[in-house]
Write a structure and sequence with these properties.
- This protein has 198 residues and is of the alpha/beta class.
- The chain has helices at 2-26, 30-35, 62-72, 100-107, 120-131, 187-190; strands at residues 38-40, 77-79, 84-88, 91-96, 160-163, 170-174, 179-183.
- It has a five-stranded mixed β-sheet, with helices on one face. Strands 1-2 form a two-stranded parallel ribbon.
- A hairpin with a 2-residue loop joins strand 3 (84-88) and strand 4.
- It is globular, with a radius of gyration of 18 Å.
């Protein structure tokens, strides 16, 4: 138990350092501080009390993010849960960081119907939107807090679906619902990102 506690302290200190360094970088660009809303959504490898095993994931702890929040201000720096829903003007935006594509490929009973498309990212988005749930898996594959399962459901298709998946980046509009979906891939691997202008 003591080694787990030391590991947790080390991880918390690492996150404090990361956000302090980010604050120093952002501080060099005053216009970014004034004109930008920063939204941070935790992934499955980020710090949490359950080691990323359960969904939905709570926001990152305030103790790790204090330096960034103090610089940017609470109104411009938002630490959200995973998944995160954003309402901007008339658009519903859902952000979900999870490695879904590889998990779906490993656990599918029937292979995707290639008559529709042979693009696996299209099959992924189709499955999520058509089933109306961000994690269409049985509980042993992706445990969920039952009291908060509603946060993973999509009773109405969002206008924009952002998936933080490790698979190759994609962006397209799912024609059946009109949902614009994209995946910027993993920023930490090759520094890719997607810009979406409203």
């Amino acid at each position: 138990n003591e080694s787990n506690l030391m590991g947790a302290r080390t991880k918390i200190n690492k996150y404090k350092d990361i956000f302090s360094n980010l604050a120093l970088i952002i501080n060099k660009f005053p216009s970014l501080i004034k004109k930008t809303k920063w939204i941070f959504v935790p992934g499955s490898n980020d710090i949490s009390f359950d080691n990323g095993k359960l969904l939905p994931r709570p926001k990152l702890p305030n103790s790790c993010t204090k330096s960034l929040t103090q610089l940017i201000g609470k109104e411009n720096c938002i630490f959200a849960s995973n998944p995160c829903r954003i309402r901007y003007c008339s658009q519903d935006i859902v952000v979900f960081r999870e490695d879904l594509l590889s998990k779906m490929r490993r656990n599918c009973i029937l292979p995707p119907n290639n008559n529709e498309t042979n693009n696996l990212s299209h099959h992924l988005v189709k499955t999520i939107i058509d089933q109306g749930h961000l994690t269409p898996f049985i509980l042993p594959l992706r445990p969920v807090y039952w009291n908060y399962d509603y946060s993973l459901s999509l009773p109405i298709s969002p206008d924009i679906l952002i998936l933080g998946d490790r698979s190759d980046p994609f962006d397209f509009t799912y024609n059946d619902s009109g949902t614009i979906s994209f995946n910027p891939s993993s920023f930490g691997l090759d520094y890719r990102f997607i810009s979406y202008n409203l």
